[in-house]
Amino acid sequence: MPIENIPEIYIQDKKESPDLFVYDFKMTNDVVKSKVNLSMNMFSFLQVGKKQVHFADTSVAVNKDQSLLLKKGNWLWTELLDKEAIYYCKLLFFSEEKLLEFLKKHTKNTLLNKDEIAYFVIENDTYISSYLNSLSTLSNAPSSFSENLLSIKFEEIMLYLLNKYGENFEIYLQSLISKEVSPFKKTVESNVYSNLKLGEIAFLCNMSLSTFKRHFTSEYNEAPGKWLQDKRLQKAMELLQEGSLKPSDIYLDIGYNNLSNFSTAFKNKFGKSPKDI
């Protein structure tokens, strides 16, 4: 699956990336775990459909009642249509320069966020609905006027969310200017029990699959496929030995897509079927 460079694919008619950019994204086909290189921080104001995003160490899912503020980076995201076979969201991209400008103007303290999170969930409300309607009028305005107005509209939504969510939002904004990258091991071990494939975990580590395998073997002294399988099956054994869960209850939670593959792998490792535990 090719990597989508966003927002570059939306602004090909421009000579250089702007500090602020609005794009109406619509589609009529589901997209599952698309590889995205997000080069700017981005508001995703979801209007119709559902969205799930896998980050290096976590994931989040939202519906039309919620929106996301996403940190720039390499992410996997799934976008699903609603019952009327439509997906629609309004995207607002902003540069780090614009963020720093806002923080300097409207905040006094440099807050430290020890637990970096790549996203912030926003509950949609009537103010945000009205705000999005006002953004829609910018496309009809002259270029110089719309750029100046968009700068004001960016400050507006940031101030509104800062007032709505308080210190939590300010802490998140401060985390967006951090240059730290999630450690390799943190990304791997956060996805041990996910159903992501090796190539998808490699992408979240900003590596090709071959580079990921070499780096993994160097770090863990074992091939990634075997290491992940052993971890998942050992966890399955522990869960089954507790006595309250059946194999059909756990196979998805430990990274297997179907019960048959899980049962075969379990029996090969432990010499007995998971039903026998």
UniProtKB/TrEMBL annotation:
Pfam families: ExsA_N, HTH_18. InterPro entries: ExsA-like_N, Homeodomain-like_sf, HTH_AraC. Keywords: DNA-binding, Transcription, Transcription regulation. The keyword Transcription applies. Residues 182-277 form the HTH araC/xylS-type domain. SMART domains: HTH_ARAC (SM00342). It comes from the Bacteria. The keyword Cell wall biogenesis/degradation does not apply. This is AraC family transcriptional regulator. It comes from Polaribacter marinaquae.
